Amino acid sequence: MRRHKDWTEDIKAQAKEQGWWRAGSAVIAAVSGGPDSMALLHLLKEMAKTEPMRLVAAHANHQFRGEESDAEAELVRRTAAEWGIPLETASLGMPQYIEETGENAQSAAREKRYAFLREAARKHGSPYVLTAHHADDQAETVLMRVIRGTGVGGLAGIPNRRREDRLELIRPLLRITKCELLDYCKRNGVPYAVDSSNADRHYFRNAVRLDLIPVLERYNPRLKESLARLADMAAADDDYMEEQAARVFREAVTPSGDGFRLERRRFRGLHVALQRRLIKLILNCSANPRQMLDFRQVEEMLEALSQESPASVRLDIGDGWTLIREYDETYIGPGQLETAHFAYSADEGTSEVAIPETGGRIRLEWLDGAVHGASGSRNEACFDADEVRYPLLIRSRMTGDTMRPYGLNGTKKVQDMFVDAKVPRSKRDRLPLLADADGRLLWIPGLRRSDHALVLEATRTTLRVTYETEN
What we know:
Distance between the termini: 62 Å
Radius of gyration: 33 Å
Number of helices: 16
Helix content: 40-55%
Number of strands: 22
Structural class: alpha+beta
Strand order of the largest sheet: 3-2-1-4-6-5
């Protein structure tokens, strides 16, 4: 066992680095009355002697164990008064609350407890709440998650620090074992209470601590240390992978209504670990991310995005969300995109037509002489203005639409042109088609123009049409 001076110095160095141990700072110590939290409170009291900080103890009496709970509250009150530490207390009345609401006892108690701690921190102007989670808690948490099923993020266990509602939750004892804390209490005369519910094997954590860990320690006497070390390594790996996934999300994912779009080619070029995390980042934007982040769900989406055929895939992923993959483009989000039908006219001299259904606009310019337009721009087309019948019509596609594409003999169905160009189905009704008053299709932006009204050397006036989108 390390000398307590060694690990207390480690905690002080960590506190300095994290910024919560400094003169004038205020910290809230969550104190249950057990040996872990009482050791933490005593350690903070000693630290405040050399670097004066405002220390406040906070005790929540859940009232699950009647007189025993009240005795713990009295112990904390008496000790805080003796040590000259301000104390915030709350009686949460959990048994009655659980009976009235039917909520899960442990999750409800945690919710009420943290609400109390947030209020205590707000009252005393402290951005920090310190809890006494220790290395044994960490080992138990990792093992419990392995049993229930977890990924790398779950193996990271309890984080050393975490932000929650503008509050910094800090666990300075995560690398200190229970035995070390008990020894600290003994050496320093720190009083504490023993929670009788810790022996109740009805709770999964207790069963893991009392039954499973002792069995596994026969094969590895340093099991807890190994699990805590695993949590440290997994946390570092998870942080790095989350940063990379966030970077890819910013670069490769674009908002689309209440959902998101991504290019399948870019997605398939990622390592599978990043693919999974990117999917999870998108699903985290749903109304019920916990419901959506099932492993099998993520794997089903991964397969839909990775497979070569069919060219089009639709997948119901729950909570009203769908995955729609069309050729190289994928939409992930609520429901199915509505079909957009629109038609706008443009008289001779009209300079601009907005198309709200597509989020774009058509610009029209009448230029003197023969102008052939920007080379290679598929969102611009030039026509002989005298060969075009007005008013022009800018509309969505219609069943049976055909065009005489420039460079081809005869007509071709617009539907076939979309298929040949691998235009996603969800985009086909949102592409504007330019037609003249005779019903001739002149141009499909980004796709093809017709062989009508070509700009020649004899052209007196050129009509230049440009399609601009917000994205």
